[in-house]
Specification:
Layout: E1 12-16, H1 22-34, E2 39-41, H2 48-57, E3 62-66, H3 68-73, E4 75-80, E5 85-90, H4 91-105
Parallel strand pairs: 1-2, 1-3
Antiparallel strand pairs: 3-4, 4-5
């Protein structure tokens, strides 16, 4: 089912656009884990659309797509499991948004 963020065992997936961003995707996933969120970096060799779709089917609440531009800016491109694209934001502001969302449920 579709778990709310505060209860979900799969909160955030980080998807690199290409192999060049795998290291950045891993770092973003690590930062989110340290912030207290269940996060997984999809470092598979699948195409970008297949990675996004697989993570939507796995019911991750948020899927962060990271490419060259996001890496250069320390940002993430945010979309939900319902394929709603929220656009680019800094990693810090996304973490703050997650904390606010969890706090709203408690």
């Amino acid at each position: 089912g579709k778990w709310p963020l505060w209860l979900s065992p799969r909160q955030v997936a980080v998807v690199p656009v290409s192999a060049d961003q795998k290291e950045y995707a891993s770092r973003v996933a690590c930062d989110l884990e340290q912030a207290g969120f269940e996060t997984q970096a999809d470092l598979s060799n699948s195409t970008l659309p297949k990675k996004i779709r697989a993570n939507q089917l796995a019911q991750f609440n948020y899927i962060l797509v990271v490419g060259r531009e996001e890496q250069a800016e320390g940002a993430v491109n945010v979309r939900t499991r319902d394929n709603v694209v929220h656009g680019k934001q800094t990693l810090a502001s996304f973490v703050a948004q997650l904390h606010d969302e969890v706090a709203a449920f408690k």
